[in-house]
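Lecture 7, part 2: worked example. A protein chain together with iron/sulfur cluster.
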Amino acid sequence: MIGNVYQTVCPGCNIGCGLYIREDEEGALSIDFMKSSPANEGKLCRFGIKLPEHYSKAVSMVDGAEASIEDAVKAASDKLKGADVTMLNVGNTTSEESLAFKAIADTLGCVVNTGMGVYSELPSECHPTVGVGMSLSDIESAKRIALFIDPYIQYPLVIRRILKAKENGASVVSVGWRNIHLADENKFIDPDKYESELGLDSESVIIADVHPNADPGWVKRMLNLALKTGAKIIFMKPFVNATGVDLLCKGTGQKGLKEIMDGINEGSIKTLVTLDSDLVELMPNSDEAAETLKKLDNLIVIASRDSAVNEIANVVIAAEPQYAKKGSFMNVEGQLLKNNGSGTAGIDALSSLNQNLGGEAMESASLHNKVLEGIIEKITKPKYKELACEVMDIGSMEGAKGNLVFLYNPFMWFDQKDDNDFVMVNLNMAKRLALRKGAMINLTSEGGSVSMRYKVEDMPDGLILTAKKIPAVTEWVATVSTEVV
Ligand code: SF4
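Predicted complex, written out as structure tokens:
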């Protein structure tokens, strides 16, 4: 770090693009590109370029009133003593803070949930492949690429790798809701035909993703496809340190996000502690999530930014912003990425909390050594882990019903203003609705109502696609009525 320039990592997704954040004397932030960054060679997607808009300083609070961080830690300790505690860390912060959080779980006798409930339904032999995929540069030498993500909406920097592969002679087939320009073929086919129609073999790469709301049956289907065709597979993830948290901190018997929310609604979860994991942002329906969280007896939020959940929390323990932290992250290909900040407010608060609860003090350097030990035991260098599991029985697939499809986006961008503030329909539907230039479509579901701009795309008839979290979204697929306004 030179002066107020921080060498850091974009928290937008698990690619972990390196960049510099510059903080001027008034605290205003701007970015500089970092050409030496291994994950992105200096490039950033449109989200990364707008990163300064994402950061906002969190404030420590106790029962709605501003407090010192020491008082917030003390209040959290009092609420946690003797309580039956559920803990959540999806991977939005450093591995060092995550290990400190896990130490608190050990002291309390509970586990850290990463929100990736899908792991508990997968054979443990395939966890390394799902957790740490392959080097992103390996995508460039594939002969054929099957895309199960939409890289224009999710994980945009993968596009560069795919274009390089195409320059090297690769063909690309995309399987998804809408046609993707860089693909040589776009297929919207029955999943049972993937093996016979996608033309995959041992020189191919499958690019899929896994996230807290991923359907376990779908993830198994992707793994089966890799097993049966011999293709390599990489699972992209939405959180910068999803890989590090999975390797170092996830607890056995952990719950997915929906299970946690169901537990709160049913009254079996009364105390929740979150580490940079805002369930209001993470769930598809923010209002519903906020109402659920209000049912908790105790919501303790440890946060590096000011986000929606902080307003509902009984206690907010405010750490420094992510770019200012001392620590490291692990990206989707298993690379350890360092943050050159010197901030340890988060670790110090977690250490005090652990001590108040009867555990040991912790400090940054020894936590970092533990990160290195823990990772070196599991990863010697970023390298593809051959799938070690058997083909899985997944039964028949039942598709969700509805006409509004929510295209999954990296979580942190859901609520930000973006070029994707429109819904997509095909030409037939635009004609049926008599959509004129400049018109808006009003979408109404039991979740709410919203008017959106529209864009005509080459996609299945009768569907409406949104890459934006809008009030009409209740689940990943919802039923909406439409009206032109
Ligand atoms: S690809 Fe992901 S990590 Fe890279 S700049 Fe975009 S959101 Fe950030």
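The mean pLDDT is 90. The domain at 57-398 is CATH 3.40.50 (Rossmann fold). Keep this in mind for problem set question 3.
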